[in-house]
């Protein structure tokens, strides 16, 4: 059935408003008088957490267990390193906070911090990828929560196998594999994007392949200096041994696949060219693909291009060469009439017009995406990372971020 509400993490960090972050509940029922409006706000108990992502307490890989239900939402905090657990099952239109794990517990028990992306494991536990250590140095890996009590169990991987950085991950149980991306060094990237950080190891470059059952690192792929692999997804078909990873700064999308026995390989399948510009922080503006999602039927791949401002739809085919079949601009830094002038563009003949919805100009660029349950609607938010939001889209920070339905 069609979803009737959406849960959106909202942060006040870097806005000069001293209020706690909150979880917004948005009415998605087109027959409701409140359709498209925020109908409930659940404020967190602390300031400046930076709610960045969210994940269900159980996923599709747990559905063979009849007791597993999507009634809890896990909210890790990118800056404070807290973990909130929200009950969305008792009252879906008015969620409530049911558990909180303090940063000191994460620091002492796991020596981890800067928590990013959450997914549930096949055994029902909850896995959270992290970007750094408590001091903000780069350190990848994962922390584990008990899937029933949500107690912090510790680290998932062996201490000696923690990657230099981390951010996103996904897995395929039938192939006993988990693949994770690189992310950034928090204490440097957290100050904002600085071109001088390029070639200094601030932005990750590795794609990591793990043995899911043994929690051991089995392969690493170097995707190039400052490639910054962020979003990683497997195909939905549980028998499929392939997926895609989006490299934000290089604009390259790689396909990773199982080639023989337990060995994996990567190949470049999409390259979004940078645009030569004036009036921007660098003479060339990369695509900066924040998010990548795949339709439930594995027919289409969607990319959000935070700097350029477009959402791209690619058709996935058996020859493994995705084909661009759809594109829509919902903001970005190259809009007509803005401070940036595009001097050379390999794709567009002219700069796109600003997006106006219900008489309101939309600022920012497309960031996090989510497909509807039937795959017919795409929900998009325009906030990426508070300090980067303020740096590149200060008007969005003042006016407030939005969620768009496409």
TrEMBL record:
Cell location: Nucleus; Cytoplasm, Cytosol; Membrane
Pathway(s) it belongs to: Organosulfur degradation
Catalytic reactions of this protein: methanethiol + O2 + H2O = hydrogen sulfide + formaldehyde + H2O2 + H(+)
EC number(s) per entry: 1.8.3.4
Keywords linked to the UniProt accession: Acetylation, Cytoplasm, Membrane, Nucleus, Oxidoreductase, Protein transport, Selenium, Transport
Membrane topology note: Peripheral membrane protein
GO MF, one annotated term: selenium binding
GO (cellular component) term, any one: membrane
GO biological-process terms attached to the record: protein transport
Protein transport recorded as keyword: yes
InterPro entries: Se-bd
Enzyme's top EC category: oxidoreductase
A Pfam family the protein falls into: SBP56
Stated family: Belongs to the selenium-binding protein family.
Function of the molecule: Catalyzes the oxidation of methanethiol, an organosulfur compound known to be produced in substantial amounts by gut bacteria. Selenium-binding protein which may be involved in the sensing of reactive xenobiotics in the cytoplasm. May be involved in intra-Golgi protein transport.
Protein name, UniProt field: Methanethiol oxidase
